[in-house]
Amino acid sequence: MQHSTPHSTASDPVVSPLPNAASATKALGDESLAPQKTRIMGRTSYFLAWFGGCVSIGTFTMGSSVVGTLNLLQATLAIAIGCFVIGIALAVNGAAGYKYGIPFMVQARSAFGFAGTRLPGLVRAVPAVVWYGFQSWIGAGALNMVSATLFGFDNLVFYFITFQFLQIGLSVMGFQGIKWLENIGSAFILASLVYMFYSTVQRYGDVLSANLLTMEGSWGLPFWGATMLFLGIYSTMMLNVGDYAREHKHGTGQGLLTTIYAMSILPCTLFMGLIGFMVSEATGTADPIQVFANAVDNTPLLMTTLLFIAFAQVTTNVLNNVVPPTYVLMDVFKLKFRTATVIVGLLAFATFPWKLVQPDSAAGLQLFVQTYSAFLGPIFAVLVVDYYLIRRRTLDLDKLYDEHGPYRGVNMAALIATGVGIAAALTFSAVSWYASLIPAGLTYYVLMQHWAPCQRFRQ
Fold first, then answer.
1. pTM for this structure?
2. What are 94-109's pLDDT values in tens digits?
3. In degrees to the nearest 10, what's the CA dihedral of 56, 58, 59, 65?
């Protein structure tokens, strides 16, 4: 097997010095932390994977949470701005994974060290497991409503357990299964969301025009805080975007990648955020399932829509809420991919998702997003500064896979910089992700340049 040199320049397409990094084909569930050489997603497939994988039901609740603060125009712009910031951030931090085929947990070693990566790994994994449980409960609720309406069988706990084990079964197939699931499901998801948006406007148009179009709203801190809420839903993926970028075939420039990310996320986020926003304004309902029930008064169409939503939870969970914590478990505990996916699926049971869909859940989820964004922003800043300013976009993969090399242990510069960023974020909690970037990135750069204990990590 031939491998290119590990000492590449920034223009080299990919580096793969490890013996198990490449294979002629990629079987179902054949995932590892080694550099990925078998890329299975072209541009269209990659776009559709992100499109289908970003149907976060939490977006409905985020839309509900800004009712009374923003008018319809402001809410629309806040969602759009958040999505384009996401697109830029994904392209920037995904560059290392795309170029070298390495996952997030390996990329983070150059900044945090082998032992230090447990911090960003844990920060990335916990929100994923929480969203996994939350969205599974929503999907199970949709199936239960269909069952109760059509067959008279009403047992939400049964559907939650069944639905979760179905997703575990799909998850063990890895990216080959994810690719086809996302690509096939995207058209159905888009069709259902367009229909839901149309039904919402048709049913509540008069109320909405009277309230949402005429209210003054805010263009100040609440507006920018709203952009961060919609951005915050995906801020977890900004950390581990390399897990997905390593599956995308080479040949796509950073500008086009930014467009792919932003335009794949924007439609679903815009439709879902505005549906949640408008229905909550008209009815006071924040529970996503009740949002659908209130927006559609035709039983067959409601049943079809609920099935679409249940399917959307599967496409989102297997891509965005299973892969990240799975790779963390693989790295920390040296588990196989399939074993780790099963454990992640079982952990989702312990998140008590039924508590997150209570009538007051919008405020709770808003606080949850703001809080974990305070941790995600600083880590994102450290990773970006490390790759672009410290490493100059050139990584030595032999050292990244050498537990006894220069990246052994913990890089205190990364931990201190993350702590500084968290402090800044919590000080300005409404815009926590934005507020953390410069303090964390600048602190990391200065420490890496001038603090002697960090010099080993500059190799």
1. 0.85
2. 999 999 999 999 999 9
3. 180
Q: Which residues pair with 248 in a beta bridge?
A: 41
Scored b (16 or more CB within 10 A) or e, 372-406 reads bbbbbbbbbbbbbbbbbebbebebbbeebbeeeeb
Taken in order 51, 324, 289, 156, the sign of the CA dihedral is positive
Cα distance between residue 425 and residue 418, in whole Å: 10
Facing residues of 41 across strands? Answer: 248
- Residue 265 — φ and ψ, nearest 5°? -85, -35
Q: Cα–Cα distance between 109 and 106 in angstroms, integer? A: 5
Cα distance between residue 327 and residue 334, in whole Å: 9
Q: How far is Cα 82 from Cα 409, in angstroms, rounded to an integer?
A: 36
Cα angle vertex 441, ends 438, 444, to 5°?
A: 140
32 — pLDDT class (breaks 50, 70, 90): very high
Q: State the sign of the Cα–Cα–Cα–Cα dihedral 439, 442, 448, 450.
A: negative
Q: Is 203 helix (H, G, I), strand (E, B) or coil?
A: helix
Residue 443 backbone dihedrals phi, psi, to 5 degrees: -60, -45
Is residue 144 within 8 Å of 151, Cβ to Cβ? no
pLDDT tops 70 at residue 401: yes
Contact 345, 322 (CB under 8 A): yes
- Supply 198's token pair: 């149309």
Greatest pairwise CA separation for the chain in angstroms: 69
The 10s digit of each residue's pLDDT in 200-216 is 788 777 766 666 666 78
Question: What does the pLDDT look like over 402-459, one tens digit per residue?
Answer: 999 999 999 999 999 999 999 999 998 878 888 999 999 999 999 999 998 888 888 7
3-state secondary structure of 240: coil
Among 326, 397, 417, 325, residue whose Cα is nearest residue 112: 417
In 3D space, the residue among 240, 321, 242 whose CA is nearest the CA of residue 53 turns out to be 321
Contact in structure between 47 and 179 (CB atoms under 8 Å): no
